[in-house]
Amino acid sequence: MSMTQSRSPVRACQPTHLLHFEPLSPQAAGLDVPCDPQGRVWLDALGEQLRNDYFFARALIGRLFARPTVRPVAPTARC
Protein backbone atom coordinates (compact mmCIF):
# COMPACT_ATOMS: atom_id res chain seq x y z
CA MET A 1 0.00 0.00 0.00
CA SER A 2 1.35 3.37 -0.99
CA MET A 3 0.72 6.46 1.09
CA THR A 4 1.74 9.00 -1.49
CA GLN A 5 -0.06 11.64 -3.46
CA SER A 6 -2.36 10.33 -6.17
CA ARG A 7 -2.57 11.86 -9.63
CA SER A 8 -6.36 11.80 -9.65
CA PRO A 9 -8.14 13.80 -6.96
CA VAL A 10 -10.23 12.15 -4.28
CA ARG A 11 -13.51 14.03 -4.06
CA ALA A 12 -13.63 15.56 -0.59
CA CYS A 13 -17.40 15.10 -0.33
CA GLN A 14 -17.68 11.57 -1.72
CA PRO A 15 -14.70 9.42 -0.78
CA THR A 16 -15.02 5.79 -1.79
CA HIS A 17 -12.32 4.62 0.62
CA LEU A 18 -10.69 5.73 3.84
CA LEU A 19 -7.12 5.22 4.99
CA HIS A 20 -7.65 4.23 8.63
CA PHE A 21 -4.94 4.71 11.25
CA GLU A 22 -5.83 2.55 14.26
CA PRO A 23 -4.38 3.83 17.55
CA LEU A 24 -2.12 1.46 19.48
CA SER A 25 -3.50 2.79 22.77
CA PRO A 26 -7.15 2.05 23.66
CA GLN A 27 -7.70 5.58 24.98
CA ALA A 28 -6.34 7.30 21.85
CA ALA A 29 -8.41 8.29 18.81
CA GLY A 30 -7.93 6.82 15.34
CA LEU A 31 -7.78 8.80 12.12
CA ASP A 32 -9.60 8.33 8.80
CA VAL A 33 -8.34 10.06 5.66
CA PRO A 34 -10.08 9.95 2.25
CA CYS A 35 -8.08 7.92 -0.28
CA ASP A 36 -8.38 5.91 -3.46
CA PRO A 37 -8.82 2.11 -3.41
CA GLN A 38 -5.03 1.63 -3.35
CA GLY A 39 -4.63 3.84 -0.26
CA ARG A 40 -3.22 6.87 -2.07
CA VAL A 41 -4.14 10.20 -0.53
CA TRP A 42 -4.57 13.31 -2.67
CA LEU A 43 -3.04 15.91 -0.36
CA ASP A 44 -4.52 18.92 -2.18
CA ALA A 45 -8.04 17.67 -1.42
CA LEU A 46 -7.42 17.70 2.34
CA GLY A 47 -7.96 20.67 4.60
CA GLU A 48 -4.95 21.98 6.48
CA GLN A 49 -5.86 20.29 9.79
CA LEU A 50 -6.55 16.88 8.24
CA ARG A 51 -3.37 17.11 6.16
CA ASN A 52 -1.35 17.86 9.33
CA ASP A 53 -3.07 15.01 11.20
CA TYR A 54 -2.30 12.66 8.28
CA PHE A 55 1.40 13.56 8.32
CA PHE A 56 1.46 13.20 12.13
CA ALA A 57 -0.15 9.74 12.00
CA ARG A 58 2.16 8.61 9.19
CA ALA A 59 5.23 9.72 11.15
CA LEU A 60 4.11 7.81 14.24
CA ILE A 61 3.26 4.43 12.71
CA GLY A 62 4.58 1.84 15.12
CA ARG A 63 4.63 4.27 18.05
CA LEU A 64 1.10 5.69 18.35
CA PHE A 65 -0.63 4.11 15.35
CA ALA A 66 -0.73 0.69 13.70
CA ARG A 67 0.03 0.39 10.00
CA PRO A 68 -2.96 1.96 8.20
CA THR A 69 -5.59 -0.06 6.39
CA VAL A 70 -7.80 0.89 3.46
CA ARG A 71 -11.51 0.60 4.20
CA PRO A 72 -14.38 1.08 1.77
CA VAL A 73 -16.86 3.78 2.74
CA ALA A 74 -20.33 2.44 3.46
CA PRO A 75 -22.79 3.83 0.88
CA THR A 76 -24.92 5.42 3.61
CA ALA A 77 -21.88 7.27 5.02
CA ARG A 78 -21.17 9.20 1.83
CA CYS A 79 -21.95 12.93 1.65
Provide an overview of this structure.
This protein is of the alpha+beta class and 79 residues long. The chain has one domain (17-77). The chain has 1 helix and 3 strands. The chain has one helix spanning 48-59; strands at residues 17-21, 31-35, 69-72. Strands 2-1-3 form a 3-stranded antiparallel sheet, with helices on one face. The longest helix is centred in the C-terminal third of the chain and has 12 residues, at 48-59. It is globular, with a radius of gyration of 12 Å. It starts with 16 loop residues before the first strand and ends in a 7-residue tail after the last strand.
Residues in helix, %: 10-25%
Low-confidence spans: pLDDT under 50, at least 5 residues?
Answer: 1-12
Principal-axes geometry comes out as globular
The proportion of strand residues reads 15-25%
Give the number of DSSP strands.
3
Summarize the helix and strand pattern as letters: EEHE
Which class of secondary structure composition applies to the elements?
A: alpha+beta
Q: What assembly state would you assign to the polypeptide chains in this entry?
A: single chain
Sheet with the most strands, sense and barrel status: 3 strands, antiparallel
Give the total of domains.
1
Mean pLDDT: 84
Q: Cα distance, first to last residue?
A: 26 Å
Rg on CA atoms, Å: 12 Å
Question: Numbering strands along the chain, what is their spatial order in the largest sheet?
Answer: 2-1-3
In short:
A three-stranded antiparallel beta sheet has the order 2-1-3, with helices on one face. The chain is built from one helix and three strands, in the order ββαβ. It has 79 residues and is an alpha+beta fold.
